[in-house]
Amino acid sequence: MNEGKLIVVSGFSGVGKGTVIKKLMDKYPDDYTFSVSATTRAPREGEVNGREYFFISKPLFELMIRDNKLLEYTEYQGNYYGTPLEFTEKMLAAGKSVIFDIEVNGAMNISKTELPKVLIYILPPSVEELAKRLKGRKSETKEQIRGRMEAAVRESSYIPAYDVILVNDKVEETAEELRQLAIAGEQDDDTFNDLLDFAEDLKEELTAYLEAEK
Question: Among 113, 123, 135, 143, which has the minimal tally of Cβ within 10 Å of its Cβ?
Fold first, then answer.
């Protein structure tokens, strides 16, 4: 890309956003940099401070809020998540596109900025596949998994505010499609509307799945 922009990627927890982003950055390392967010949640197994996240204390995070050192921030399931502003501006000035893997509230906050951006929402191919991926992490309790699926139902209402919708069925294909649509900055109306309908179907299926799992 000749001009840097913010590539804001959201999706249901467990949809594979991180895997898609990693595939894209491995293939095109000179075009992108990953926005490393700060969070107050505990690291998962294999996560490294400064690589996946900056793992910091709640008091330090709240100090960053007061000092306006965050591009955006949100609270999700009892933890803060936010984007350091200085790093983002530095990368854009260097012509790099900055990829964000963030929740919908953070994405909506970024959408209000004047910085060049494209908002992309990633969906799973099915509710069954989403449940399989969440359970496959083996890092969360049954209650936490249910909480993430309930959050997915709530987040569905934000999807129409995005510029692009993708379905992560095959990671490599999704990564390439993400690259092309990020460059374009938009998706054709027919495809977008068809995927909005698919997202609504997923929401209904998720609601039924959660009811059956009670």
Answer: 143
User: Does residue 201 belong to any structural domain of this protein?
Assistant: yes
Residue 63 falls within a domain, yes or no? no
CATH for 23: 3.40.50.300
- What size, in residues, is the chain? 214
pLDDT tens digits, residue range 16-29?
999 999 999 999 99
What is the total count of domains within the chain? 1
Across-strand partners of 13?
none
The residues, ordered by sequence, that sit 6+ positions from 185 with a Cβ below 8 Å of its Cβ are 5, 118, 163
Please count the CA atoms within 13 angstroms of the CA of 71 that sit on its side-chain side: 26
- Quick check: 127 and 202 in contact, CB under 8 A? yes
Sheet hosting strand 97-101, strand order edge to edge: 32-34, 97-101, 6-11, 117-123, 164-167
What does the pLDDT look like over 153-175, one tens digit per residue? 999 999 999 999 999 999 999 99
Dihedrals φ, ψ of 78, to 5°?
85, 0
Within 13 Å, how many C-alpha atoms sit on residue 108's CB side? 10
Instruction: Name the pairing type of β-strands 79-84 and 70-76.
Output: antiparallel
Q: Give the three-state DSSP class for 101.
A: strand
